[in-house]
Request: fold
Amino acid sequence: MLHVDRVDSLLAEKVHISASGLNPFQCYKFQLRLNYKHGTLQSYCVIQSDKDGKINLVKDKPIRGTYHEADPMGLFLSVQFTDELSFGHLVMNENAEPFFYTLRLISESEEILDEVNMKKHWTHPLVTQIAVSQDGLYGTIFKPPGPGPFPCIIDIPGINGRISKRHSAVFSSEGFLVYTFAAFDYKDLPKKLQDVDIELYSRHIKFVQSLPYCSNKIALYGLSLSGTIANYLSTKHSELSAVVSVNGPEAFYRPMAEFKENGKAMNCEEFDGNLSEKINGVIKQKRAFLDAFSRLKPETSIKWEQISKKIQFRLVGSMDDWIICGVTNCLHLRDNLLKTGHKVEIDLVAAGHTMLVPYCPHQALAYNKFHKICLGSGGETTLNNKSGEQVWNNHLKFFKRHLGTPVKMPDYKREAVIELPRKVISKL
Reply:
């Protein structure tokens, strides 16, 4: 009945799902369940079989479901939260652990006709993770097989300051050397972002440059505040080759994103949270950010003129961003770079603020424990993730163009049958 070409695959790899031996011209439901350790997420589609009793998700359009166009990855793009997960729960997967899925074929009478378990690796099994802990630097190196040197991406940590392996793992699966690190709220590092001197980030860049298997082609990657940090660091490191900033605010701001520099607090504009809107209990911050950045002065702005013209930029802005105004923000960044003679490409996409890795569940809102609010990021699930699929592929093209194409990763031994670990078996 069910057929999946690869039940064991990498996160960004597409899988082809089909079914045969069905009654002709009859409707069947395909249900995909993401067996997440804190609860189940799921998606579904209903498709009519053809005259031969076959269905192919590559070409067959759903009659109804969580997605609406023929798409081999439609079920993965549209997984949604169930009641097993609390309102505002954030699917973190900071350690980039594999995702386990169960695909079910269900009849019109709701009988389960067949089911197949699948596994998606965030980290290629042949990538080596090397923990770093020296001289106050804590991080993780993702090293592809072989001696190198490899083109390198530095994944800048985000608003929580700790080591997050999500982007690093998936980028490394493409053959890049990737490094990510902790900046605060980790071991003996400062507890708060406001106590961090931005020079710490430069120390990590210099550490990566010292690695014998790192090429001289290094890029910075950042999402949200990490994107702002990446843009700022480009003013200090002319040796960088490229920067990718995804929905990175155009400047730092007080009090939430105010670093120290040379021991003193940076000069930033004030963020007035009272200007944020509350819609059904969910905070939309766009108006507050527009206000803060409308007051930017030279002393509170990134010094774009100090950035080397050799550094290439890629900017992504989301049109349904609830945190910043994605379009305005992205165009301001582009204009600043063009005025100073830099080369820049942009993607304006139909998505919310949080664009992670391909086929990661979309988070339209999440509870922020630091600010104790339910924060909206925007974006409709399927459209957001379809845009994310495109954005990720464009990231890879950009990095290969400006860092060099890494050696193709060898295949790994794939399992033919997947068993679910006990910790992810659903209660449903």
